[in-house]
């Protein structure tokens, strides 16, 4: 007697529908801006319930990959799968009910309050026959509480500090109530205290069951917070896996051209990169 098995890349059994092993997957992508090709044959699968961080030098294609995963950049070739479905064939609102994106350096409309901006995260759940509802109000309140900006609800976004604004944008993404959250350099332009504040919030969201994908420049933050790292160089994936396997002195030199030592973080035990004196000239 034969036993039914799930298709490759899925989990499940013969008694129920198969669930993709990865909620978000890129297959053989070619990514380009006009005539500039950034990546060819680029494939990556995001582990479910992971905090995946994409790392690599400037210009390697990190943010471009994230844009393709979020369907804001159409690949020249290949496909992106969201819960096993080709994302380009899905309706925009259906994608937005499953996946939220916090872009790099978002810009808020003029004279908009925190509450109004966060409420825009409910747009995917509304339509001609479904306008603002008690469920929307609850989702916005929960997002404001989760990001600890409820007391800023009536403030103008333009009057907030950088760290406050970043938490407000995160609140808007959370108001979408998606299981997938994509973050493009969420700590850019923030001082160290606000960086830690935002990353701690992301870690908490991951612990609550969400799948997070972030692009980060700081290797030590990536190693401390990620459960899964994707290292890129020149438009290709060089290595991926747990931080302890990816962040090695040899790999840092290969990816970033930086001579370093990798030691345990005294606080978390995760890999910590310590550049050698004159590392940039010797790499």
Automatic annotation (TrEMBL):
InterPro entries from the UniProt entry: AAA+_ATPase, ABC_transporter-like_ATP-bd, ABC_transporter-like_CS, P-loop_NTPase, Siderophore_ABC-ATPase
Region named Disordered: 1-22
Bilayer topology term: Peripheral membrane protein
Pfam families assigned: ABC_tran
Keywords carried by this UniProt record: ATP-binding, Cell membrane, Ion transport, Iron, Iron transport, Membrane, Nucleotide-binding, Transport
GO cellular component terms listed in the entry, alphabetical order: plasma membrane
Principal location: membrane
Sequence ranges assigned to domain ABC transporter in this UniProt record: 24-259
Keyword Protein biosynthesis carried by entry: no
GO biological process, one term: iron ion transport
Subcellular location, record wording: Cell membrane
UniProt GO molecular function: ATP binding; ATP hydrolysis activity
Keyword S-adenosyl-L-methionine: no
Name of protein: ABC transporter
Phylogenetic lineage: Bacteria, Bacillati, Actinomycetota, Actinomycetes, Micrococcales
